[in-house]
Design goal:
Elements lengths: L1 E7 L6 E8 L6 E10 L2 H7 L16 E8 L11 E4 L8 H4 L9 H5 L11 E3 L2 E3 L12 E5 L3 E4 L5 H4 L5 H13 L6 E5 L3 H13 L3 E6 L2 H9 L4 E4 L5 H9 L5 E4 L4 H9 L6 E4 L13 H5 L3 E4 L7 H13 L9 E5 L3 H9 L5 E5 L1
Helix pairs in contact: 5-6
Amino acid sequence: MEIKAAVVYETSGDFCIEQLELSEPRDDEVLVRIVGTGICHTDLGARDMHLPIPPPPSVFGHEGAGVVERIGARVTKVKPGDHVVLAWDYCGTCPACKVGKVLYCLNFFLHNFHGARPDGTITLRKGDQPVHGSFFNQSSFADFALANERNVVKVRDDIPLEVLAPLGCGVMTGAGAVMNSLQPKPGASIAVFGVGPVGMSAVLAAGVCGCTTIIAVDVKAERLAMANELGATHTINAAEVDPVEAIKDITGGGAEFSLECVGNPKVLRQAVDVLPRLGVCGLVGVVPPGTEVALDMDLLMNGRTVKGILGGDAIPDLFIPRLIELYSQGRFPFDRLITFYPFEDINRAVKDMEEGRVIKPVLRM
């Protein structure tokens, strides 16, 4: 079928709205009419070839939300007309998947960054030219997307889909890092380094968990102001003061939990250095393979933990509906992070995101 999609034709190039041909859904696939899709730094990292993916031309997008149009013969999870949020794919058969840790799937790259279906078949073409798609098994920078039954999440239909789109990755990652991975008890202290969409979602989740000291660290004053509005009890501008000393002063010795959402070795070192004994640092920020960090081994030996976290350790089918319920109760107002753009303005949305003018751009189809 003919669709409209945002195609990147060269590394770090602009997104070009084009007419493409999308394959018909197979027996285990779902055709989704995309209503809205969030833009994530991972999309831009793929555009810039910072991920081990095939070269352009490519269609990215992995925070899609829409309405099921058609389903394959073996699909039972959803039906036409259902509202869905799209998440990541996984094989379902490796040791990690069998114990429910699908984000650590041994075949994750094959199912999400292969530029095609896992068997190598291309789903997008422009005339005779293949276009790499199936990004996170969706490529939702388009008005229609193909997904597998595994990575569609059925959601309630009384909330606008374009609001729910960021739940598919960024918001789920930040919230899950706190609620699923760190699991702070009520009254705990937490420091969040970097309050972009992931870090801001972590601040919201810390409030849901009952943390009473929530420290937001960033270098952008406007983001710190937003974090304060969304529940941070303290804010620190790391461009003006030493965040390690400031956090130790605020907490009287260190934050029980910290979260690195920047993807910077210097910031990770700071996030570890603020921990007291038995403190836990979660690493969420994405870095290129091979990035190294220097840590104080004596500090770690004294009961501190550094925990790598992918996707908030979330099971999307379970976690996304829980976040939606919290949102509907007014306890998780992640919509405050969103700025909407028409699909045709994708390049303006990307530029605004890269220059820090918006936190979470969402494209309306």
